[in-house]
């Protein structure tokens, strides 16, 4: 259509294409779907019980305050304060329609067309897409074999047009957790240059430690340069309810809130009710689920320890494993298609997360059921044996 201009050249989100591939799959084998970063289980009973009550209340169908329900903002500020041994206030919390929206309104409030945002690669594809859609320039920061971004290297990329640096930790797609000292170095870099550090902490509670992920909330005037982004989707298994949060300076939140109002008026109230129930009554449930996720990830690491079928584990953590099939002669997109059609295993191609094609795949380990591990190993082994006859 000739009228379309703004989104031309942007990649199509892979999720619908993967679902179509799932629907078209004709293998006798049951599909092992490792393409989406979602929990394989539903929300805790305390959430479903609260929602059953909430839908009977006519207030639940009304708009929420633009910044979010005060109860949720207060509860979440309290949780962050306890988790980080710091003070985060209700007025420093903006509730959004998922963490994706938190990122979008944060960068749109910070930057204008032509400005730059430093983005470590591999990156989460929606981040890169939004920057380009918003006419911003993503400046890629390679992360090497460790997949941990280097603040010194990032400093060399800063120009007069740089408005922010983004970190995602634990990462998507790699799962790698950035050490607290490195996060602090990035914050200091942002402060020295008068730019923002945006820290996406969607998988914060799925780290291999209960120690604070960083000490940024204890920095003097942290709100001037630090923005953190959060999600309730993974922690309480409610991705469809679309509820997340942005934490930062109240002045910035007010500007970001204008964008929220234009997009959705307010984050869905039903999702906010779910998050309130989770924060009030599902913390022990969440702790158990985090432990199960860690056990599942360790089983996956063991599964790939001897590179079955040539599949090599490059990095892993939280929900994800970053896997490579080096030497595969066809592009990663074709690798994904053949893996689905020949072995009924769905993954995402690495080319969605980085501009080069090194035959990487992202596997969402969180979706693996206990009975699927041995089967997955057998399928990867069988598929790797076909590499000489694509």
UniProtKB/TrEMBL annotation:
<dbReference type="GO" id="GO:0006520">
    <property type="term" value="P:amino acid metabolic process"/>
</dbReference>
<dbReference type="InterPro" id="IPR050596">
    <property type="entry name" value="AspAT/PAT-like"/>
</dbReference>
<feature type="domain" description="Aminotransferase class I/classII large">
    <location>
        <begin position="31"/>
        <end position="380"/>
    </location>
</feature>
<keyword id="KW-0808">Transferase</keyword>
<keyword id="KW-0032">Aminotransferase</keyword>
<dbReference type="InterPro" id="IPR015421">
    <property type="entry name" value="PyrdxlP-dep_Trfase_major"/>
</dbReference>
<keyword id="KW-0663">Pyridoxal phosphate</keyword>
<dbReference type="InterPro" id="IPR015424">
    <property type="entry name" value="PyrdxlP-dep_Trfase"/>
</dbReference>
<dbReference type="InterPro" id="IPR004838">
    <property type="entry name" value="NHTrfase_class1_PyrdxlP-BS"/>
</dbReference>
<dbReference type="GO" id="GO:0030170">
    <property type="term" value="F:pyridoxal phosphate binding"/>
</dbReference>
<dbReference type="InterPro" id="IPR004839">
    <property type="entry name" value="Aminotransferase_I/II_large"/>
</dbReference>
<dbReference type="Pfam" id="PF00155">
    <property type="entry name" value="Aminotran_1_2"/>
</dbReference>
<comment type="similarity">
    <text>Belongs to the class-I pyridoxal-phosphate-dependent aminotransferase family.</text>
</comment>
<dbReference type="GO" id="GO:0008483">
    <property type="term" value="F:transaminase activity"/>
</dbReference>
<protein>
    <recommendedName>
        <fullName>Aminotransferase</fullName>
        <ecNumber>2.6.1.-</ecNumber>
    </recommendedName>
</protein>
């Amino acid at each position: 259509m000739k009228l379309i201009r703004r989104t031309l050249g942007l990649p199509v989100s892979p999720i619908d294409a993967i679902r179509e591939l799932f629907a078209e799959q004709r293998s006798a084998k049951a599909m092992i779907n490792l393409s989406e970063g979602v929990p394989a289980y539903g929300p805790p009973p305390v959430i479903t019980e609260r929602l059953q009550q909430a839908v009977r209340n006519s207030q639940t169908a009304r708009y929420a305050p633009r910044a979010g329900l005060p109860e949720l903002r207060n509860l979440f500020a309290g949780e962050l304060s306890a988790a980080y041994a710091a003070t985060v206030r209700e007025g420093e919390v903006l509730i959004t329609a998922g963490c994706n929206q938190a990122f979008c309104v944060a960068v749109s409030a910070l930057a204008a067309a032509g400005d730059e945002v430093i983005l470590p690669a591999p990156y989460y594809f929606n981040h890169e897409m939004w920057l380009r859609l918003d006419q911003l320039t993503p400046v890629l920061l390679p992360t090497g074999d460790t997949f941990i971004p280097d603040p010194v290297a990032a400093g060399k990329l800063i120009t007069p047009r740089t408005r922010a640096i983004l970190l995602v930790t634990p990462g998507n797609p790699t799962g790698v957790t950035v050490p607290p000292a490195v996060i602090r170095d990035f914050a200091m870099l942002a402060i020295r240059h008068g730019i923002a550090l945006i820290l996406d902490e969607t998988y914060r509670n799925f780290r291999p430690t209960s120690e604070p992920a960083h000490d940024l909330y204890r920095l003097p005037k942290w709100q001037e340069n630090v923005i953190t982004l959060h999600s309730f989707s993974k922690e309480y298994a409610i991705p469809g309810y679309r509820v997340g949060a942005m934490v930062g300076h109240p002045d910035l939140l007010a500007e970001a809130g204008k964008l929220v109002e234009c997009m959705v008026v307010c984050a869905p109230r039903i999702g906010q009710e779910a998050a309130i129930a989770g924060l009030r009554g599902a913390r022990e449930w969440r702790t158990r689920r985090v432990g199960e996720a860690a056990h599942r990830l360790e089983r996956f690491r063991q599964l790939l320890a001897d590179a079955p079928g040539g599949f090599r584990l490059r990095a892993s953590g939280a929900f994800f494993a970053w896997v490579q099939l080096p030497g595969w002669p066809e592009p990663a997109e074709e690798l994904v298609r053949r893996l689905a059609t020949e072995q009924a295993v769905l993954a995402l191609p690495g080319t969605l997360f980085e501009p080069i094609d090194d035959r990487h795949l992202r596997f969402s380990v969180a979706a693996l059921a206990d009975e699927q591990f041995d089967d997955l190993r057998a399928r990867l082994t069988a598929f790797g044996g076909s590499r000489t006859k694509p």
